[in-house]
Amino acid sequence: MKSLKDKKILIIYTGGTIGMVSGPNGYIPVPNTVRDILSQQSIMHHKDMPSWDIFEFEVLLDSSNVGVAEWNQMGRCIFDHYRDYDGFVVLHGTDTMAYSASAMSFMLQGLDKPVVFTGSQIPLCEIRSDGLENIFNSICIAAEGVAREVCICFSGKLLRGNRTVKLSSDRFIAFESPNYAHLAEIGINIQYNEGALERPDPPADGLKLVEFRELPIGVIKVFPGIQFSLFEGIMTERLRAIVLETFGAGNIPASDNALLPIIKKAYEHGVIITVCSQCLQGTVSLGTYETSRGLSEVGAVGGADMTTEAAVAKLYYLFSAQYSKEAIKAMMSQNMCGELTE
Ligand code: ASN
């Protein structure tokens, strides 16, 4: 087995606070900041450190601006360099990291090397930055090769990417996977939770990249007093899918039964309706309560314990991979890469 220092890691900088500098209009990512700061760290050249290269995106983004094109760019970058490296560290803004990590978990079919997303809450160029520690931990995890899946390494924890949500905009502990065990705890030792890790079989035909296409989908969060009729206008043939963020185990307010006929019409137009929960823990179970029964009767499908982030990414994947409507509907409640518990 290769030791860590014999491993090769590609660090991909996409943008985000970690490489930002304060400007007149707020923080913005600045080219070469991460590269320069990392190169100056003696630990990055320590004899036991894996060898590493850094690839910086031409246009660096606050992650609020990351969309389908950038996901494809990230996926392609990993795909193109897959054979040359033992693992990948993706430096990314925290705001949409959970979406991007979810997207990569579907886009990179047959992945059996670590892809570790990280970033920081304070830029590397400022004192008290959490960035260096996050980067060092991520490099070690990418090099160890135990977690051969898309994960998020942040503030001493390793989480499954498609199970993660951003929890805090100002704490160092910015992420959690509230519905799934941590993949590792990072202390003096990196303690992997073997039972929680994906165990991909080495894929027969290697890594496959499924680039995403733009997709007209919507996320609707229900709330007490919601006037469903306002949403009728968007439920046209143009819409391909909706993620409905419901209460508890998949419950919706009766509100004069306004939603169900709208959902039924949308379903008849071919729209895939996936039911997720506003709760961070637990699962959707349509039919447990009378307030959810109607949803399955009009064609909606329960997304079990999937995060909204994972549900959105999965829809992009399934439509881009050109599955049929029936297959997409079935697959939204089936586990593909550790994103939900069946
Ligand atoms: N707005 C930043 C981003 O997501 C936040 C961060 O990285 N901490 O790019």
UniProtKB/TrEMBL annotation:
<dbReference type="Pfam" id="PF00710">
    <property type="entry name" value="Asparaginase"/>
</dbReference>
<dbReference type="InterPro" id="IPR006033">
    <property type="entry name" value="AsnA_fam"/>
</dbReference>
<dbReference type="InterPro" id="IPR027474">
    <property type="entry name" value="L-asparaginase_N"/>
</dbReference>
<feature type="active site">
    <location>
        <position position="94"/>
    </location>
</feature>
<dbReference type="InterPro" id="IPR027475">
    <property type="entry name" value="Asparaginase/glutaminase_AS2"/>
</dbReference>
<feature type="domain" description="Asparaginase/glutaminase C-terminal">
    <location>
        <begin position="217"/>
        <end position="332"/>
    </location>
</feature>
<dbReference type="InterPro" id="IPR006034">
    <property type="entry name" value="Asparaginase/glutaminase-like"/>
</dbReference>
<dbReference type="InterPro" id="IPR027473">
    <property type="entry name" value="L-asparaginase_C"/>
</dbReference>
<comment type="similarity">
    <text>Belongs to the asparaginase 1 family.</text>
</comment>
<feature type="active site">
    <location>
        <position position="17"/>
    </location>
</feature>
<keyword id="KW-0378">Hydrolase</keyword>
<dbReference type="InterPro" id="IPR040919">
    <property type="entry name" value="Asparaginase_C"/>
</dbReference>
<dbReference type="InterPro" id="IPR037152">
    <property type="entry name" value="L-asparaginase_N_sf"/>
</dbReference>
<dbReference type="InterPro" id="IPR041725">
    <property type="entry name" value="L-asparaginase_I"/>
</dbReference>
<dbReference type="Pfam" id="PF17763">
    <property type="entry name" value="Asparaginase_C"/>
</dbReference>
<feature type="domain" description="L-asparaginase N-terminal">
    <location>
        <begin position="8"/>
        <end position="194"/>
    </location>
</feature>
<dbReference type="InterPro" id="IPR020827">
    <property type="entry name" value="Asparaginase/glutaminase_AS1"/>
</dbReference>
<dbReference type="InterPro" id="IPR036152">
    <property type="entry name" value="Asp/glu_Ase-like_sf"/>
</dbReference>
<protein>
    <recommendedName>
        <fullName>asparaginase</fullName>
        <ecNumber>3.5.1.1</ecNumber>
    </recommendedName>
</protein>
